[in-house]
């Protein structure tokens, strides 16, 4: 008698991550076809530029997701929530076709494609892909990778030794700016720019601390599984887990001790 092999769980983290990699492979050639070429740029309400590449990538990724997982929700930067889907309930894909559009439109190769998979609002898998650099970070519970190699955060436990990143100091205003400046002044080294690339560097131990504000769920949800699986901590500025409803303030650190020290300043 023939014995049927057990069916592969379509929502197993490794299965989801393999599909996320397929999405990244589909996005790369589109991004590179537009990169460093004349672009039609539109300024959105939040003053961030939108390009033809953003839209073309999101259309492509949505089509692939709907073909493979027609019942899953989708939340993308350019096209919003899939009609009929409720983010936070059931399986949801959160995608940012080009994170770092300002880098993209100015020829800087530090832009990425972000893919996150959430189940019941909880981020299960995340992918950071850098098309122009050919680099990729992935994360599922218990496993973070940079390419085929394991990724691990640094052992930095003190602000006085921390290498600190933020995308731009101009992103902080009012009370947030005062908190950012207090935090930045206590770190050993400060670097700016990079958007999602900085989080990949943190996951691989090349920087230790990142603080940002004004982010959207498609900017940060893919980062959560990568940072956590690499041994780091990533929360909002109150120390709470990041969700689709978070206020856009993000703090990521290589170790719990470093995170706690930074958090104490941001809470003050």
From TrEMBL:
Cofactor(s) essential for the protein: Mg(2+)
Record carries keyword Amino-acid biosynthesis: yes
One BP annotation, GO: L-histidine biosynthetic process
Keywords assigned by UniProt, alphabetized: Amino-acid biosynthesis, Histidine biosynthesis, Hydrolase, Magnesium, Metal-binding
Binding-site list for Mg(2+): 77, 96, 98-99, 219
Pathway(s) it belongs to: Amino-acid biosynthesis; L-histidine biosynthesis; L-histidine from 5-phospho-alpha-D-ribose 1-diphosphate: step 8/9
CDD domains for the chain: Bacterial_IMPase_like_1
EC number from the UniProt entry: 3.1.3.15
GO MF term (any one): metal ion binding
UniProt xrefs under InterPro entries: His_9_proposed, Inositol_monoP_metal-BS, Inositol_monoP_superfamily, Inositol_monophosphatase-like
Catalytic reaction list: L-histidinol phosphate + H2O = L-histidinol + phosphate
Pfam families in UniProt: Inositol_P
Family: Belongs to the inositol monophosphatase superfamily.
Protein's UniProt name: Histidinol-phosphatase
UniProt source species: Methylorubrum extorquens DSM 13060
């Amino acid at each position: 008698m023939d014995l049927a092999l057990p069916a592969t769980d379509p929502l197993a983290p490794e299965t989801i991550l393999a599909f996320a990699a397929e999405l990244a492979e589909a996005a790369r050639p589109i991004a590179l076809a537009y990169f460093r070429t004349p672009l039609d740029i539109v300024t959105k309400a939040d003053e961030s530029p939108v390009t033809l590449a953003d839209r073309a990538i999101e259309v492509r990724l949505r089509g692939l997701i709907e073909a493979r997982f027609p019942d899953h929700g989708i939340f993308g930067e350019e096209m919003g929530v899939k009609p009929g889907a409720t983010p936070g309930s059931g399986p949801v894909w959160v995608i940012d076709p080009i994170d770092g559009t300002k880098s993209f439109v100015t020829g800087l190769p530090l832009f990425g494609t972000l893919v996150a998979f959430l189940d019941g609002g909880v981020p299960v898998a995340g992918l950071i892909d850098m098309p122009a650099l050919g680099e990729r970070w992935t994360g599922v519970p218990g496993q973070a990778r940079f390419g085929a190699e394991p990724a691990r955060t640094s052992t930095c436990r003190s602000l006085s030794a921390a290498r600190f990143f933020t995308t731009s100091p101009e992103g902080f205003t009012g009370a947030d700016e005062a908190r950012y400046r207090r935090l930045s002044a206590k770190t050993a080294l400060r670097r700016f720019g990079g958007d999602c690339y900085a989080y990949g560097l943190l996951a691989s131990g090349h920087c230790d601390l990142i603080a940002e504000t004004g982010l959207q769920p498609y900017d940060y949800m893919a980062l959560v599984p990568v940072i956590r699986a690499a041994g780091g901590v990533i929360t909002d500025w109150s120390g709470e887990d990041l969700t689709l409803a978070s206020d856009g303030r993000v703090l990521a650190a290589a170790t719990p001790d470093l995170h706690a020290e930074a958090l104490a300043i941001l809470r003050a």
